[in-house]
Amino acid sequence: MAQLLTVLALPVLTRLYSPEEFSVLAVYVAILTMVQVLACLRLEIAIPLPEDEVEAANLLALALVSAIAVAVMTGLLVLGFGRAFFVAIDQPVLPTLSWLLPFGTWLAGSYAALQFWSTRKKRFSTLARTRMVQAGSGLTAQLGLGFASAGPLGLMLGHALMAGAGVVNLARQVWCHDRGALAGITKLGMREALVTYRRFPFYSTWEALANNAAIQFPVLLIAALALGPEAGFIFLATRAIGTPVTLIGGAVGQVYLSRAPEEMRAGRLPEFTADVLKGLVRVGVAPLVFLAVVASPVFAFVFGEEWRRAGELVALMTPWFIFKLLSSPVSMVMHVKMMQRAMLGLMATGLIFRVVITLGAYRFDPTLIAEGYVISGAVFYLVAFWVYLRASGAGWGAVKGCASSFVLPAIAAVLAGLAVRALFAGVSL
């Protein structure tokens, strides 16, 4: 429901804010996304893993302290170098709004730590409610400030609230129900937990940074190099197609992480992973294929003719997001099996590959820079999907199962999409 609210609000937001203002938001989100993965030093990912509640509570404390420290460091960097950096990437509006970066970092980091604790406790209904709070808070800010003609501030503040507005509710749940575990938090316990799970800050932090930078750093390049608000079109396209992927993949990923350790101990991890992937294909692939077919005319009709380019990008992004839908939830297998070093290598390679392809497309033809970015995403997530399959032990059997579940829904989605396009062909845009 929370994701649905954000999608329903997009037609209003695209009429309150221009593509140029969405481009400013795209740059802010790109920077924030890269910084916020450092906030908890990836210790939040380890919270569901220990069998001992006190050890998990010490990991929670470490993650929350780290979020504060990284937010403070972000603020100092913004004060010292922010203006020069934003001018260098042709974003003169951002220096006055850069205070939102440390604020957004702290909110997102704190929420991530508390979210993984709630996942450990299997409080999925609580997480669903907090996502509604996030969506409601963020959209209220974006719509209210949009009607007040506040410019990019409304989009940026709303995004920060969407990332972390549920912190208070999750913290209240932890305080009310988990005081016994919290009472075991000590400096010694935190130190021991840090030593035990040192692979997460040492390897997973840089892996996550490389993963996010592979997606977001090219957006900064596009904002700096492309003519016009191309970054804004990319942002709307990824928001539209990424919403079902985030909704489905995020929920499945939380369940996968909560069950994968016990499935691995029971020797059922390959079968469990294959079943998860089949479910993802049955539920998630057909809507993405349908969206790809109808995106261009529908975007022009729903968001306004000036946003047709975003619809064209959605169609190109479909292979990328199909492989992302399948790979992201089961990527947690790399953490469950303590394969952080391999994950770091994969993500670092992906970062280099995506930046090189994006810049190569720009050198070949500056108007194709976005296409290069999109194609590199599809190739990378295809490779990542195979790596995660191998790590889980699922292998080719899972691929065959996914393929058999894919064909008929995809054909139906294409036919339905063509019918919708035929209807829109007669609509004056």
UniProtKB/TrEMBL annotation:
Q: Keywords, A to Z?
A: Cell membrane, Membrane, Transmembrane, Transmembrane helix
Source organism's superkingdom?
Bacteria
GO CC annotation: plasma membrane
Quick check: keyword Ribosomal protein in the entry? no
Q: Where are the transmembrane segments?
A: 24-45, 57-79, 99-117, 208-227, 279-304, 310-330, 342-362, 368-389, 401-424
Where is the major localization of this protein? membrane
Q: Topologically, how does it sit relative to the membrane?
A: Multi-pass membrane protein
Write down what this protein is called.
Membrane protein involved in the export of O-antigen and teichoic acid
Native source species: Roseovarius litoreus
